[in-house]
Amino acid sequence: MIRKVISGGEAGVERAALDAARKFMIDCGGWIPRRRALEDASLVRSYKLTVLADADADQAAARNVSNADGVLAVVRGAAGESAALHLRLAERYRRPAKVLDLDRIPAFNAARAAEAWIREHGIVMLNVTGSQTPDEEIYRTALGIFETLYQLLMMDSRHHRTAPGDVATRADLRLDAFVRIPKTVDEAVAVLLSALSFRDRTRIANMDEKRLDTLIPSLGAYIKNEFRLWQGNRSLLDDCRALSDSANEAPSRVIIRALRRALQNAEGVLRVVK
Questions:
Q1: CA neighbor of 9 nearest in space, from 59, 47, 38
Q2: Running along the chain, 274 residues long, what does each successive block of 10 average in pLDDT?
Q3: What string of DSSP letters covers 176-209?
Q4: Are strands 50-52 and 70-75 parallel, antiparallel or unpaired?
Q5: 33 part of a folded domain
Q6: Domain that holds residue 190
Q7: Which terminal CB of the chain, N or C, has fewer other CB atoms within 10 Å?
Q8: pTM of the model
């Protein structure tokens, strides 16, 4: 299981990896040159980054790579200048590296590929790099990938506690709820309601239905995997079809739509007044 995510906090993939890590209570860190800290002081506070006063961007990247167990690059198309630098540094410091090209692999498959690679190499300290852009699309896609990745890794770590008497963490408890295999949409919604944080419940409750598709790369992919939709959970699939708005509506979207409806009628959820 990953214990720490290291990056320089660049806009795009690096920041998505750190934001997802904070959500799942995974430690963050990394090194940045003084120039970047002066440009955006919130980076240091938000992600616990360390400023290298006399270093440039290349030297900060070298510190991030050398202090990690492996380098994961998430790109769209050819690796950019920063991602290419991190990959060269991984070779120099003999760190395993993995490149995920989102032009060639779907988001959920990317999370699965990253999970397999992390397990294979026993990555504990993960350095993340990738496409650097203020474009919200790459950030949202990468955020979904890393949220799914951390969930998958936490699911695995639940079965490897050091002793029978170990106290379960909040992450353990959240994931314990996910492993129950529902047979109906209502059961699926009940599992999700017990697993989602207050923040996520509020966000989904106030989300316009047209924006529900933005949850598919992360929550939707996780529903498909953990509720065994990939493996033919026939009872749940049949119930999803019965409740779908159209013949082409994905089962995971049916569940997310039902979840939103349940949240709008639930107590303990903040309502946004428009």
A1: 47
A2: 90 92 90 83 86 89 96 91 94 96 84 92 95 78 88 60 42 45 91 78 85 83 79 87 91 94 75 48
A3: HHHTS--SSHHHHHHHHHHHS-HHHHHHHHTS-G
A4: unpaired
A5: yes
A6: 180-264
A7: C
A8: 0.60
